[in-house]
Write a structure and sequence with these properties.
By secondary structure, the protein is mostly helical. The chain contains 7 helices and no strands.
Length: 227
């Protein structure tokens, strides 16, 4: 039965009336707030995933290409359907596995050889403490891996805006900051939407330096060094 409020601030039974707060519409986050939240969440998740590799069991729950320890009845390797490290698994499957040379490796390389190495490293319990005022081995490896993992994962999740495109073979003024930024943006777009990845692999096989690919790649390399 609905309680009604009288004129004196009491309900019909003479008890003090309860005033319910009016609903408040949730505030919409601004673009900068969404960007900050995205950075915080990816930072937390990537570092948590790297930390999880302290446990030797994590790698067997990683999912393809690393196998579970319980193969199928016919001896065929089985893979976890839900990865214990979804962001890291996405980086491996989207970027590393399709690379020329890597994609030609036999399946056993991943779920036998490399998986065995990772599990042995976890079982070794490498030092994570500060030893003689320097970072321990595990902490050094984890910090470096987390930084790379975080940057690449943000790129995969956040994506890149497709613009009208640039010409990496045009001339860029490497003494001009705006040209360096433009070269980086042009190179990034070609990496994501174009064929620059394959072209860089071909360049590495044929020439002594990747910067010989084009003036745009050379200027983009300068931008990365400065940053």
């Amino acid at each position: 039965m609905e309680t009604q409020r009288g004129d004196s601030g009491t309900d019909n039974a003479g008890r003090p009336a309860i005033t319910l707060p009016t609903s408040v519409a949730p505030e919409t986050l601004s673009s900068s707030q969404l960007h900050a939240l995205f950075d915080i969440l990816t930072h937390h998740e990537t570092y948590a995933e790297v930390e999880s590799f302290k446990d030797p069991r994590t790698i067997s729950e990683y999912g393809y290409p690393f196998a579970k320890h319980e193969p199928q009845s016919d001896g065929v390797p089985s893979f976890a359907s839900d990865s214990a490290a979804p962001l890291l698994a996405g980086v491996l499957r989207s970027i590393v596995l399709p690379c020329p040379g890597v994609r030609d490796l036999p399946a056993e390389f991943w779920h036998v050889r490399f998986q065995g190495i990772l599990e042995k490293l976890a079982e070794a319990e490498l030092s994570e403490s500060y030893d003689k005022a320097v970072l321990g081995i595990r902490k050094t490896l984890a910090t470096a891996a987390s930084a790379i993992h975080e940057a690449v994962s943000r790129g995969l999740l956040g994506g890149a805006e497709r613009r009208r495109g640039g010409n990496l073979h045009r001339e860029y003024d490497r003494s001009n900051a705006q040209d360096l930024v433009q070269a980086w943006e042009d190179a990034l777009e070609e990496l994501v939407f174009g064929d620059l990845v394959g072209e860089l692999f071909s360049c590495a096989a044929e020439k002594p330096s990747l910067e010989e690919h084009s003036p745009g790649v050379k200027a983009a390399a300068d931008y990365v060094i400065i940053q």
